[in-house]
Known about the structure:
Layout: E1 5-8, H1 18-32, E2 37-41, H2 46-54, E3 58-61, H3 65-75, E4 79-82, H4 89-94, E5 101-105, E6 117-120, H5 128-131, E7 140-143, H6 152-162, E8 172-176, H7 185-193, E9 203-208, H8 215-224, E10 228-233, H9 238-244, E11 247-251, H10 255-262, E12 266-270, H11 276-285, E13 288-292, H12 298-310, H13 312-322, H14 327-338
Parallel strand pairs: 1-2, 1-4, 2-3, 4-5, 5-6, 6-7, 8-9, 8-11, 9-10, 11-12, 12-13
Amino acid sequence: MLRTCAFRVDSDPEIGVGHLMRCLIIADKLLINGSDCVFLMAQVSEDNKKLIEKRGHCVAKIKNHQEYCSFLMSHKPEWLIVDHYKLDCKFELSNRKYVNKILVIDDLADRCHDCDILLDQSPFRHKDEYFSLMDNDRVTYCLGNKYSLVGPGFIKKRRDICSLNESIRMKYGLISLGGSDPKNITMELLYAIERIDSLRHISWYVVAGVNNKHWKKIKSYCLASDLTIVFKKNIENIEDIMHKVDFSIGGLGMMVWERACIGLPSLSIKIAENQSSGEMMINKYKLGEVLHISDISSEKIDEKITNLRMNYSDYIKNGFELVDGMGVDRLINVMYKDRNLKRDTE
């Protein structure tokens, strides 16, 4: 059993919830194995705080670096897990005197790190891209899609879907832009879809995430729309809806891994430049279709959904081959192995 594990991560409507959700997947598995997990957060919404606590973990809101260091000194975590684009080797090195081991989660390979384990689940990532960025030459690299982080619910639904042998229906669709959707892409998609005659027969599930500040407007639109729409807000088990639908329109964050694991052909919307690796992954491994936010239109969506229908079986097969849902188990095994290796601190 690992002792207390601390997570340094932030989450708010602008940052989104992707970093938090992948940390929660790790924390949930550690909790099952008997570890106590605490989330050290400078930015966290009340809804996200409740989500973390509901899953059996603690949240410590940190106001400054001194308060943060005091917490580490008093709790002495065995592991510090860092998932934050604005933190690098300078921050990680400053934590060495307080913690035994450090795990860093990254997917940009654009800054230096000082850690014992580096996790980057991008399937095309190579060690060479990190060598020049590492201050510690004894890093264990967990790279590639074998370490992709998805929750256990997706594995269970994947097994259900694998047993199905149905023809391509394209009768039920899901629209979910993740935890926040600050630009309200959901509404933009709904406006465009309502003008597409070939999609008017589809019954839609529209899901607004925990930090979606536009959810009331989206709900009102769904209730008044001529389309058949079921609106949901802040659901905990989105895999249940993914299991019901035939395809999805969603973001390019960690939901790409979830949709691939469960076998859901999808049109992914590229919202930010830091999602280029997700776009590259979808195109390289033929997991679905991609549409840039600036290209959203009725014509483009109709074209992309047609492509989904034409390549439906291939997209399911490719997703299954890329993401088997066992990534967090492999990571935890590496963490247990690494704790037995003595670190030279001199």
